[in-house]
Design goal:
There is one protein chain. 59% of the residues lie in helices and 0% in strands. The mean pLDDT is 82. It is mainly alpha-helical and 83 residues long. It starts with 24 loop residues before the first helix and ends in a 10-residue tail after the last helix. InterPro entries: BBLN_eukaryota.
Length: 83
């Protein structure tokens, strides 16, 4: 797991023998782990977003119904009856 500043916790040695791109198995594993954590966080945020969206839709419909009831009590014609 990385630190709060994104450090991998694995030192990267410049010019290591036998590595063409400068990254070894440990670095790739650390990057994979971080990507998995990010993916998990994004999944969680998406679930929360979906839940909030559903709750806001319920609130919107409730407010529409309440407004219509008030308008009916006042004897006014509804100005916006569309969903």
């Amino acid at each position: 797991m990385s630190g709060p500043n994104g450090d991998l916790g694995v030192p990267v040695e410049a010019g290591a023998e036998g590595e063409d791109d400068g990254f070894g198995e440990a670095e790739y594993a650390a990057i994979n782990s971080m990507l998995d954590q990010i993916n998990s966080c994004l999944d969680h945020l998406e679930e929360k977003n979906d839940h909030l969206h559903a709750r806001l839709q319920e609130l919107l419909e409730s407010n529409r119904q309440t407004r219509l009831e008030f308008q009916q009590q006042l004897g006014e014609a509804p100005s916006d009856a569309s969903p």
